[in-house]
Amino acid sequence: MSNKLNHFIEVCLDTENQVWLMLHSGSRNIGNNLAQCHINTAKELAKMAGQKLPDPDLAHFVADTPEFKAYWHDLQWAQDYARFNREGMMARFKRIVEKHLAGGKATKALLEVNCHHNYAEKEVHFGEDVYVTRKGAVRATEEDYGIIPGSMGAKSYIVKGKGCANSFCSCSHGAGRLLSRNKAKNVYTLDDLIEQTKDVECRKDRGVLDEIPSAYKPIEEVMENQADLVEVVATLKQVVCVKG
Length: 244
Fold this sequence. Notes:
Blueprint: E1 8-14, E2 19-24, H1 30-48, H2 66-101, E3 119-125, E4 128-134, E5 137-139, E6 145-148, E7 155-161, E8 170-172, H3 181-187, H4 190-196, H5 219-225, E9 230-243
Antiparallel strand pairs: 1-2, 1-9, 3-4, 5-8, 6-7, 7-9
Helix pairs in contact: 1-2
C-alpha cells in the first residue's frame, strides 16, 4: 500500500459500550515492491514475444510457467507477512491498553478478526479453479468474519459473510472515496476537519486533511447496498484514531 495514511490504529466502542481494538495495515510496501518487480518482468516478456497490448500494464504471466510460479510464491509470502505484521501490531496494541486501562492484567478477546484486502487467492467458484483478486474487498464466505471501516469520523462494522456466489463470496473493505486526496485538500479546510472529527481524539492538521470524513462515501449507504453479502455483527464508533 503506497499511502501510509491508509494505515491506522483505533480504539472503538460498539452499541453496547464494549471496547474494540482495530488496526489496518498490510505488507508495508514490501508487497508493492515485489509486485513492481514482477510487473516489470511481465512487460519484458511481452516485449520479447512481440505482443501488441493496448497498454503495457496489461502484460501478464501464463499459469504454470516459472515466472508465474515465482510471482505466486512472492505474493503468498507478502500476504503471510501482512497477516503476521497485523498480529504483532495488535499484540503490542493490546498490551498497551491493558497496561493503562486494566492495571497490566491480561484480557481475553471475545472475538478476533484478521482479514486480507487487496490480495489474490486461488479458490473454487462455480465448479472451477480460479484466481480471485480482491481490490478494496475482503472474502465473505459463510465462515468469514470481516472488517469494514468507515472514515476517521464515521462508523465501522464487524461483519460475517453470507457466502453470496454471485459476488465470488466478497464484500467491500470500506466506504471508498468520493473525492481524490488532492481534490479533498482543495475542497475542505482545517476547520471542516476539526468539525467532522469533533467526537474523536485524532490528528487535526493539514497533513491528514485528505482523510476528512466527507471525502468518503457514507458508510451507512455502503452497508445498505451490500446487505445481501454480509450481516452486521457489531457497529463501532472510534474514540481514538491514530493515522500513519
